[in-house]
Amino acid sequence: MTRVRTRKKVAKKQYTTYAAIGLVIFIFLTETEEGQHILTWLFNILLIGILGYGYYRFFLRKKRFTHIVDLKEVDTMDGLEFERYLVPLFECIGYNAEVTKGSGDYGADLIIKKKRKKYVVQAKRYSSSIGVSAIQQVVGAIGYYKANGGMVVTNQYFTPAAEELAKHNRIRLIDRDELSFMIKKYQGGLNKWR
Predict the structure, then answer these.
(1) What is the mean pLDDT of residues 162-190?
(2) Fewer Cβ atoms within 10 A, N terminus or C terminus of the chain?
(3) In the CATH hierarchy, which fold is given to the domain comprising 71-186?
(4) What residues form the membrane-spanning segments (predicted)?
(5) Is 151 helix (H, G, I), strand (E, B) or coil?
(6) How far apart are alpha carbons 44 and 56 in whole angstroms?
């Protein structure tokens, strides 16, 4: 507890120091004509960066598969398509999501982050119920990726044994019904997830 407080105090002192140095540099630059030109260039670069990030965030980051209306189309996807499809769904509910490498992913198909918390996600696009192996993979991935928790997302339902194992390991299960809800949310529907 005291270490955390000490770190926060040190960080606060550092921020104060950086702010003071920045203010001195700013005042120094505003006194000369050259400094004013430098500040103008820095401001323009910052403005272009902010506009570029906004363009990226709101236009280029929109993923494919926005046309999908129901789970029948999800049922026709292959595993990798399903993983990629989940990225914008998780981003819609406030996570930063990325697909892991295909083979050798140690049980995590996606890594999602939100408010300094990291979660591993196992994506299972199957034609039958999901058993305990998916839960076991996520439990292993939590340790490997040093995650705070895990989820299994599927276009089907879970067996009772899988639900029991997930409950004991605190793994979040997202089945066909909840996935359908996420898709509706992504398309501008309900607001349960926020």
Answers:
(1) 85
(2) N
(3) Trna Endonuclease; Chain: A, domain 1 (3.40.1350)
(4) 15-32, 38-56
(5) strand
(6) 18
